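Request from the bench team (R.T.):
"We need a structural guess for the complex before ordering more 2-acetamido-2-deoxy-beta-D-glucopyranose. Sequence and SMILES attached. Just send the tokens back."

Command: build protein-2-acetamido-2-deoxy-beta-D-glucopyranose structure.
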Amino acid sequence: MSSNKIASKFKSFQPKTTSLSANFLSNLWKSVAISGLVLYIFYIFLSNHPYCQSSAFFVNLRSSYKWIFPPTTDSPTNISHLVFGIAGSSNTWRNKRFYIDAWWQPNKTRGYLFLDRYPKEFLPWPSSSPPYRVSEDTSRYNAYNKHGMPHAIRMVRVILETFREENKDVRWYVMGDDDTVLFVNNLVEVLARYDHRKYFYIGMNSECITSNFAHSYAMAFGGAGYALSYPLAVALAKNLDVCIKRYPTLFGSDHIMQSCIADIGVSLTQEKGFHQVWIMLSPLPKYSSL
Ligand SMILES: *[C@@H]1O[C@H](CO)[C@@H](O)[C@H](O)[C@H]1NC(C)=O
Ligand SMILES: *[C@@H]1O[C@H](CO)[C@@H](O)[C@H](O)[C@H]1NC(C)=O
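Reply to R.T.: structure attached below.
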């Protein structure tokens, strides 16, 4: 066979292979593009991500075909998914309790008031107030306590002690002081917008500029209250005592808490509904809040 003949045979063969592989490739791309588009449309119409809810029509469609679309998120957040951890003191509870009783809903709101000592003068404890617990002794941290605020370490540990008491079906831990006034229904509505399965630290600056300057612009103020998602509370609780020892000189509990959360890699999500207002005129509450 002459080399010419071979070349001509090869030539007649070659275009066929190119067209075959070109066909195959274009078909492949078409099917990738089409299936991508179909998946995208499914995602758009059926998404139930908290930030990207599909319309009620498609949500209903999804819930009536549960066997095709297994639910990917939980039920809407309600009051029983929140647990409150309130830092208080037996010496001031006589006056402060009115702020808490104003929003506490017995047998509906979950949580505890943490006191510095046994509240013998208030017994029997009324069911209209949150159940109390006496904070664990923190004297073992004395070497690490150069904090300007008394009770700073005890107050940071309220999240840990609240977590140990209540950790079933919890989505949010809401931390506050004994003069924090909350509007619980509004709070539930706001927290329901966030994905409680992710790390969230939700709160707000102080409305008093000097407070932000003196402490931190990046932290939530406990006087207004702030919320931690369940997984963040788990991560904090795991290593809280180690973290407390890492920051022996910060002024108070809110700043220690923010530093511990920052070490986990989470920064503050600001919600302007939390108001820490410093009102000098006693006996008005120092703070009002969401
Ligand atoms: C809150 O939702 C849960 C389901 O996640 C439900 O079992 C519970 O009864 C609801 N509680 C209230 C007070 O609506
Ligand atoms: C809360 O529930 C307990 C029983 O579980 C009941 O004894 C108590 O009276 C209730 N408190 C209020 C204020 O409804």
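Two things stood out. Residues 281-285 have pLDDT under 50 and may be disordered. The CA atoms of residues 30 and 36 lie 10 Å apart.
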